[in-house]
């Protein structure tokens, strides 16, 4: 999975710099925006181990972003460092091979994502997701490729999808969200 992540905190910037300098992967955890805590309690416990592909200003928004390539899902065991950035000991979550149902769902996700691309060809995020879909061959890769099509969801909704097990459950949830997005974007005259 490749996606762009907005860098909003000093911790995020420091972690990105350290990972780039050491040429090491980085783990990304979504924030619990409703958390009153300013520390590690504001972070979800399931995140993504990723390689930093590029850092700079976002093409569409001008904000500081990092282009990341996800490697695996992880669950934090404990934080081992808090300053100047957070470091954690993490356990890899299973990435069992996709069952037959996973391949069927991945094909359906591809189809709906292609229709969304037809409606939003000028959108940078949608075009990037379409290009990643062309490169994807497994259900896991398809799931990662369409991540950019889920930016309309709130963080907690994307986090719920990330934590679903097994893979087919994540694919079903993504398929549902993409179908909903397509239904909202399709002019009513095309629906009849």
What's the total count of β strands?
5
The shape is globular
In CATH, the architecture of the largest domain is Roll
The average pLDDT is 84
Give the helix level as a range of percent.
Answer: 40-55%
Topology:
Elements: E1 2-6, H1 10-22, E2 26-28, E3 46-57, E4 64-81, E5 87-92, H2 100-119, H3 124-135, H4 139-145, H5 155-163, H6 167-185, H7 188-191
Antiparallel strand pairs: 1-4, 2-3, 3-4, 4-5
Helix pairs in contact: 2-3, 2-4, 2-6
What features would you describe in this structure?
The protein has 192 residues and is α+β, with helices and mostly antiparallel strands. It has two domains: 2-92, LON domain-like (Archaeosine Trna-guanine Transglycosylase, Chain: A, domain 4, Roll); 100-187, no CATH class. Residues 188-192 have low confidence and may be disordered. It contains seven helices and five strands. Helix 2 runs antiparallel to helix 3 (124-135), helix 2 packs parallel to helix 4 (139-145) and helix 2 runs parallel beside helix 6.
Quickly list its features.
single chain; 192 residues; alpha+beta; Archaeosine Trna-guanine Transglycosylase, Chain: A, domain 4; 2 domains; 5-stranded antiparallel sheet; 7 helices; 5 strands; 23% strand
């Amino acid at each position: 999975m490749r996606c762009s992540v907005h860098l909003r905190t000093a911790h995020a910037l420091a972690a990105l710099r350290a990972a780039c300098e050491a040429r090491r992967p980085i783990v990304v955890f979504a924030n619990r925006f409703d958390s009153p805590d300013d520390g590690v309690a504001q972070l979800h416990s399931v995140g993504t181990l990723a390689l930093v592909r590029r850092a700079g200003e976002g093409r569409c928004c001008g904000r500081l972003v990092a282009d990341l390539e996800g490697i695996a899902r992880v669950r934090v065991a404990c934080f081992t460092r808090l300053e100047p950035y957070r470091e954690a000991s993490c356990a890899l979550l299973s990435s069992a091979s996709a069952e037959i149902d996973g391949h069927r769902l991945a094909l359906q996700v591809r189809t709906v994502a292609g229709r969304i691309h037809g409606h939003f060809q000028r959108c940078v995020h949608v075009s990037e997701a379409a290009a990643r879909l062309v490169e994807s061959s497994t259900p896991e890769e398809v799931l990662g490729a369409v991540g950019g099509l889920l930016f309309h969801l709130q963080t907690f909704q994307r986090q719920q999808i990330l934590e679903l097990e097994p893979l087919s459950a994540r694919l079903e949830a993504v398929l549902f969200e993409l179908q909903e997005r397509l239904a909202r974007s399709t002019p009513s005259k095309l629906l009849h």
